[in-house]
Amino acid sequence: MRKFWITFWFYFKENFTTKNLIILGVFFIGVIGAAFAFDHFSGRYNDLAIVNTTDAFALHEDVFDDLHGWHVHFVDSEDEARAMLDDGDVDEVFVIEGEDRPAFRMISPSETIAVETELFVNQHLMMQHTENVMVIYELPLEAVAELLTPIESSFESLLDTEDGLAAIVIGAILPWILYMLIMSSGSGIATSVVSEKSTRVMELMMGKVHPTTTMLAKVLSYFGDMVVLTGAIAAGVFVADWLNFIDVGTIISTLAEVISLEIVLLSIVIILLGYFMFIFMYAAMGAIAISIDSLNTMLSPVIIMIMIPVFLPMFVDLGNAVMNVLVYIPFFTPFIIVQRFLRGYSSLLEVGIVTVIMTVSMVLIFLAAVRINKNGVTHTSEKTTFSDLKKLLQK
To answer: Per residue in 53-104, pLDDT tens?
Structure first.
């Protein structure tokens, strides 16, 4: 275990102290902060439609002067507001109802409504109701406040339950997160293996540290670097929150309402399995290659193979017969299984089966990478054939 940690820290510090990683970390913090700053100062607004169906309780233009970041449209009928929602002209619709006491209905194209708008509308309707009761019954504010009950409200989502917001959010970000992690680490670890082989460093290490320990320490050190970069991205987000460009708390609470902890944990497990599976493959390719040029030639098909499952769901339905087969292929599984599960195309049993297949594949690729890395030190052939690969695996 001691040799593992020494090797891990050696690779981690070697990667972490490189100028490229430091520059990349600062770049991520700056870009994330600048992106939110641009969004904050660019004057971009969300659009809200208000339908007043009663004269007893109504919201007018002057009420919304304090609601920042929203353009409010006053619409004569609910049908007109729904048409605007379908056309994408507004983001939310509030229908104000009630004669004796106020009520409102919220309509959204997604499964959530902005918390700030709901609270704002609720607050002003309650103020109107309180004033009316005080005037009619000649009661003091304290007495009315104790008697009034919360305003009734309801929510309607125009989003098909099969295409829930959780599936949309996960489908939009999970494949790209995995893709970026693989692209950021893969070529680096493959290049590192090639460099060590060409400088004979691996031959010296083999006498001191077991190849399995070396491979595991190297891969985990690169993963640690990715964690540091993820922290840099998070730092950029919280800097934007500190400068009031965004409200991280509201974003987190909104996502927590539609994405359960179980789905978050499943996504993390799938990302980690997919990440290590591909990274071990990159390491094996680095052991086979004898130069950076030959490595780049070998990596081209792998990059294409990774891009296919990232872009395929944009053109092919996740419930398609092709997807029903591809989900069981380990190199496609991590990019599509969570989306399929959320949209009802994959059962919990199927998720368990493909997770086991991915785990077994990851272990087998790791063992193959260790064997190839050990035997590839003396591999100097300009072109690697299948027979060469077979020999590397069998030595």
So the answer is: 988 888 888 887 766 667 889 999 999 998 888 777 888 899 999 888 889 9
How far apart are the C-alpha atoms of 109 and 85, rounded to whole Å?
7
Using N-to-C axis directions, what is the helix angle for 348-375 and 211-242, rounded to 10°? Answer: 120
* pLDDT tens digits, one per residue of 175-210: 888 888 888 777 778 887 777 766 655 555 555 667
Q: Which CATH class, in words, describes the domain spanning 46-159?
A: alpha beta
β-pairing, 152-157 vs 103-108, is: parallel
Phi and psi at residue 261, in whole multiples of 5°? -65, -35
- Tokens, residue 335: 């990019």
- Per the CB < 8 A criterion, the answer to whether 155 and 106 are in contact is yes
Predicted confidence at residue 393, as pLDDT, reads: 47
How many Å apart are CA 333 and CA 361, to the nearest integer?
Answer: 11
* Tokens 């009315």 sit on residue: 144
**Which pair of structure tokens corresponds to residue 300?**
């081209």
Exposure letters 168-200 (e unless 16+ CB within 10 A, then b): bbbbeebbeebbebbeebbbbbbbbbbebbeee
Q: Which helix (H) or strand (E) holds 51?
A: strand 46-52
Partnered with residue 104 across adjacent β-strands are: 96, 153
pLDDT at 354 over 90: yes
- Which token pair is 147? 């008697």
Q: Residue 296 corresponds to which amino acid?
A: N
Task: Write out the H or E segment, with its range, that includes residue 187.
Answer: helix 165-198
With CA atoms as reference, report the closest residue to 112 among 249, 259, 239, 5: 259
- Answer left, alpha or beta for residue 191, where phi above 0 means left and psi between -120 and 50 means alpha: alpha
Q: Domain residues of the chain, as ranges?
A: 6-37+163-394, 46-159
User: Do the beta carbons of residue 316 and residue 322 sit within 8 Å?
Assistant: yes
Query: Which tokens hold the place of 235?
Result: 């730092």
Q: Is the pTM of this model over 0.85?
A: no
Q: Which residues sit opposite 157 in a β-bridge?
A: 108
